[in-house]
Amino acid sequence: MATYSLDQVEIFGRGVLKAEGVVIDKQNYVYGGGRNGIIYRVSPDGQVSELCSLPAGSIPNGITMDRQGNLVYCDLGKKAMMKVSPSGQVSMIADRVRDLPLTLPNFATYDADGNLYVSNSSTRDINSVLSEMAHPEPNGAVVCIRRNGTSEIVATGIYLANGTAIDPKEEAVYVLESTRHDCLRIPIRKDGSWGKPEVYSRDFPALPDGMAFAADGTLFVTLPAFIRDGKMAPAHQIIQVDTNGKWSTLIDDPKGEKLFFPTNCAFGGPGLQDLYFANLEGDHFSRVHTNFHGHPLYHQR
What is the pLDDT of residues 209-245, one digit of tens each? Predict the structure, then answer.
C-alpha cells in the first residue's frame, strides 16, 4: 500500500513540457529543462516562464544549482556538463573527465565542498544506449569535477548509471543502476578518495531514475518505467528507502494521472517538506507535502 494517495499529489506548473530534472532554489522557484531545449522557471504560486532556450542540439537531462544561482545540467545532445547563468547565458563546464568522454551524462549533485559528482550512464550515446535496457552492460561511471577544476573518475563498471545523491552525513555518494533495479553506495573517505561501490538497496519493482535524501537519511527514488521484453512500459511510481536499505511504496499512479514517467525529484518549499517530481512524458511538475524534511542541497544551505 502506498503511503500517499493520488489525492495528496498536486499538479504544479502546468506548461513545463517533458522535463527530466527538477531543482528548487532558496526562494522556492522551481526549474527544469524540457526535451524541447527550454529551461523553465516556475514561481512558488505555479506560474510558468521560460528562463532561456538552450543552444541547438541540446537535450537537458538532470539538473542542479550552484551557490551563485547558476543552473548546472547534464546535456545529452552536447555530451557535456553545462551551466546556465541567472540571466540565461549558457556555457560548458566539461565534456570529459580524464580519458572518459561524457557520452551520456545523466545526473549531477554537489557535495558540501562544492565538488560536482556526475553519473555517465554509458559509453554509448543516446542513439544506441537503448540496447542496454534489454541486455544490461556495465558501461556506466561516476566522476567528480572538483571545485578547483581538476577531475577524477570515482567508479566504473556501473550498469546504466543514473541518479546520484550525497547522503546527509557526506559519507558516501549514491548512484542508481537502472538496468539492475538497485542503488549503489560509494564511500567517501576522509582524504577525499573513494571506496568500492556496494549495493545499498536492491530489487526495486521498476527501473529507478532519480533520488533525493531526507535529513533523517530516508531516500526517495523515482520509478518511471518497467522493462518488458526489451521494451519500456510505464510504472509511474515513487518508493522510499529506509536507512537499512529496505524500500516501500510512497506513491503509485498506475494510470499516470499526476505522475507521468517521473524521472527526478527534489525537496523544496517551507521547511523543505515538499517533494517535487519531474515528469519526462508530462506537461507539468508534481509535488506532495510530506512529513519529512529534505536534506538541503549545496545551493540551499
Answer: 999 999 999 999 999 999 877 678 899 999 999 999 9
Q: State how far the Cα of 266 lies from the Cα of 272, in Å rounded to an integer.
A: 9
What lies within 8 Å, CB to CB, of 119 at 6+ separation is: 62, 105, 106, 107, 108, 140, 141, 142, 158, 161, 162, 163, 164, 175
Which top CATH class is 6-300?
mainly beta
Centre a 10 Å sphere on the Cβ of residue 50 and count the other Cβ atoms it contains.
13
pLDDT in tens, 270-295: 999 999 999 999 999 999 999 999 99
106 with 162: CB under 8 angstroms?
yes
By three-state DSSP, how is residue 290 classified? coil
Between CA 205 and CA 197 the distance in angstroms is 22
Answer whether 0.85 is exceeded by the pTM.
yes
What span, in angstroms and rounded, lies between the C-alpha atoms of 223 and 254?
A: 11
